[in-house]
Amino acid sequence: MGMYIIAAASVSEWLLVILQVGLGLGAVIFVHELGHFAVAKMCGVKCDKFFIGFDIGGYKISRRWGETEYGIGILPLGGYVKMLGQDDNPSHIAEQMRESQASVEGTVATKEVIGPDGKHYTVDQRSYLAKTVPQRMAIISAGVIMNVIFAFVFAVIAYGLGVPYTPCIVSSTALGSAAYQAAIRPGDEILAVEDVENPSFSELMGGVTLGDLQKGVSFTVRRAGTGEVETILLKPEQRGDELARVGIFSPRSLRLAQELPFRQHTPAARASADFQGGDEVIRVNGQDVRDYREYTSRQVQLADQPLEIVVRRGGQAPAGDPWGPRQGGQEIAITVPTRPWRRLGLVMEMGKIVAVEQGTAAAARGLQAGDFIEQVAVVERTADPAGRSSLADDPLALPRELRRLARELGEVRLTVRRSSASADGRQLTETIDLPLREATWLEQPMMANDPLSIPALGIAYRVLNRVDSALPGSPAARAGLQRGDVILQAEYLVDDQVQERWLRRPVEFGTTDNHNWPVFMRWLQDLPASAQVKLTYKRGAERRQAILQPEVVPGEFVTQRGLVFAPVKRIRKARTFQEQLRLGYQETWNSLGMVLRFLGKLGTQIPFSSLGGPVTIAQVAGYSAFEGMGKLLVFLTMLSANLAVINFLPIPLLDGGHMVFLVWEGIRGRPASERFVMALHTLGFLLVISLMLFVFALDIRRLIGLD
User: Which residues touch 380 (CB under 8 Å, ≥6 apart)?
Assistant: First the structure.
């Protein structure tokens, strides 16, 4: 969403945001170095330089006041304080002592100290090396302490101004996920994640990503349908290098996205009048809709009919809440045509059940992951209006068919092959009668490797990439595809006017873990009418290709019409100064804890690819600034906490590394040997440089769209 906000911004807004981000990031670095500088001065250390950024090659803007040169360096990747007798490289201690001794003899007050070689050196009393170990520890730790203090200050100010956030209202769930199995539905609101009450959606994601994958994460949920509140335990799922998830998607409002209110090549683009960014949907076919849940429900119920969508254009948002429902403005009725389903004519093999929704008749009858549905038929005592005894063999068509028949058929009969064998080793097959339910919510595959679901039954199952049949006269049949062919790859062939980058990426089916046929067919519906599909498939040992032109299926419709909705936003603002302090403390504490938990699980539960460098930091800061000063200050709180924790890690080059050497010096009574320090410093240097190059590479990949 941030990209659309920025794209719509004026030049003056751009410049203001750049200025805010520059000042904000500079402030985080400034307060860190200010901590070192202030405590060094209090301890009587002479400070030669105080710089934000590094003056590489002498390029800088600076001015000297008293004994200290203050300046801004050309390389804006940090800052430093240059103290007499102190070097960021601990291996230079002996050299610093010798230089200090030679330069001060007979001219200034001196102090005798012990060097790493055990010899006594006379140094300037105002040098860093002349200070006691506790004093030097105070100087080194002051930067981190200042970052924590100012993280709290930033947060307190932010909650005085008001912080926009995305609440934890469910727009949809990932099929087969933990949230799907727990029957979490659109409109349900997450009231707490573990001990975090009234969480933002980013806090929910953080709680899941860093949660206990074995024990699960506790959620307190208020159900939209009944208003009941219950506590459930969801076990996050992690696929490969992806972050763990429970399958909850962020909420959508009824206000159209400012920059992209509708997708091209969809019915919304062919409507009787143009939708505009900021339009707010208020009625569908004469019925008021209050939220995205109700709007989606109307779409599901009227998928086979044109929609008359009434939007409010203009109007006035409530004071202090720019995202609240508007009053006044102009009401405009726009007719949106239906959206026919398009197919290739391939009937793929059905895979095993991967999830069963709790509380359904299917769960009560013992259906579980690993079972296989061999047949779905009409129960004899119910009358099928179409006169059929068995339903669609196409696993893609089955959910839509049962959704339509839910009102007319009381039950369906499933022939199920159980995942477990009998005591004598025979495969168990069972016939189960299940009632159909009328599902008014939308369930569709949205991400790679998502299964398909039957909302009328509460079952999610795999669709394989092996062909069961090609429908007679279909594009697939004309291209020669047949039973047993295995689809390896699908590529969308679109013209140069199609800007969506994801449509130009091939969809892979080459391994047993890539069950991507459902999401491939879902994405196919967003293609322009002229687009084609190139399939790469395997027949026996032979690899073949075919180009197919999708065709419209009579009487089959896609639910969504192509409108793009902005996320739900709320403002969290303290009503009293005491509440400001409480929220500021809570934000700071949560940020510190989040960083520590992130580092603790980095490389295991958290993939290294989730790291970000300076470019990512600047981008996120920019997105935050576009949402207001409060949001930017909360981001700076997180960044300050991040800097405090990371800078205090026991790694040479960082403040934490200096503290380790000081602890060692306090125990031994003299600094560590130069050879020992040099070895550790080299390892630390290689680690830090490698990490910087790695995160830079990740930034570049994201910029050019490889991630």
Answer: none
Reported confidence tier of residue 126, pLDDT bands at 50, 70, 90: confident
- Could you tell me the residue range of the domain that residue 639 belongs to? 2-45+131-162+590-703
Q: What's the whole-number mean pLDDT along residues 32-39?
A: 91
The domain boundary residue, chosen from 317, 341, 365: 341
User: Is 93 contained in some domain?
Assistant: no
Residue 139: how many CA atoms within 13 Å on its side-chain side? 27
DSSP type of residue 510: -
- In this prediction, residue 324 carries a pLDDT of 79
In 421-576, alpha helices (H): 475-478, 517-524
Domain with residue 234: its CATH number is 2.30.42.10
Q: How many CA atoms lie within 13 A of 651 on its CB side?
A: 15
In the listed set 306, 341, 376, which residue is the last one of a domain according to the structure?
341
Euclidean distance between CA atoms 261 and 255, whole angstroms: 9
Instruction: State the Cα–Cα distance between residues 59 and 386, nearest whole angstrom.
Output: 81
pLDDT at 224: 93
What secondary structure letter does DSSP report for 609? G
Angle, in degrees to the nearest 10, between helices 674-703 and 614-626: 50
Which helix H or strand E contains 674, and what residues bound it? Answer: helix 674-703
* Ramachandran area for residue 85 (φ above 0: left; ψ -120 to 50: alpha; else beta): left
Angle at 335 between CA 331 and CA 337, to 5 degrees: 155
Neighbours of 149 (CB within 10 A): 15
Distance CA 631, CA 623 (A): 9
Please check whether residues 415 and 530 belong to one and the same domain: yes
Q: Which pLDDT band holds residue 503 (cuts at 50, 70, 90)?
A: low
- 389 pLDDT more than 50: no
> What's CA 564's distance to the chain center, in Å?
19
pLDDT at 4 over 50: no
- How far the first Cα of the chain sits from its last, in Å, is 17
Q: Quick one: 324 and 368 in the same domain?
A: no
| CA-to-CA separations, 283 to 275, 301, 302, 427, 568, in angstroms, rounded | 14, 14, 13, 53, 18
Model confidence at 90: pLDDT above 70: no
The answer to whether position 280 is within a domain reads yes
How many C-beta atoms lie closer than 10 Å to residue 120's C-beta? Answer: 10
- The model carries a pTM of 0.84
Asked if 183 and 358 touch (Cβ cutoff 8 Å), the reply is yes
Contact 417, 374 (CB under 8 A): yes
Model confidence at 617: pLDDT above 90: no
* Token output for 335: 């007719």
Q: How far apart are CA 336 and CA 269, in angstroms?
A: 9
Question: Which pLDDT does position 487 carry in this prediction?
Answer: 93
Q: 350 vs 394, 402, 549, 561, CA distance in Å?
A: 8, 16, 24, 28
At residue 699, the 3 state secondary structure works out as helix
Q: How far apart are CA 595 and CA 326, in angstroms?
A: 39
Radius of gyration in angstroms for the set of CA atoms belonging to the chain, rounded to a whole number: 32
Amino acid at 76: P
Query: What integer is the mean pLDDT of 234-259?
Result: 90
Provide the pLDDT confidence category of residue 388 given band limits of 50, 70 and 90. very low
Average pLDDT, the chain: 86
Of 92-101, 142-151, 352-361, 554-563, minimum mean pLDDT range: 92-101
Residue 555 lies in a domain: no
| Residues 571-603 pLDDT 10s | 999 999 999 999 999 999 999 998 998 888 888
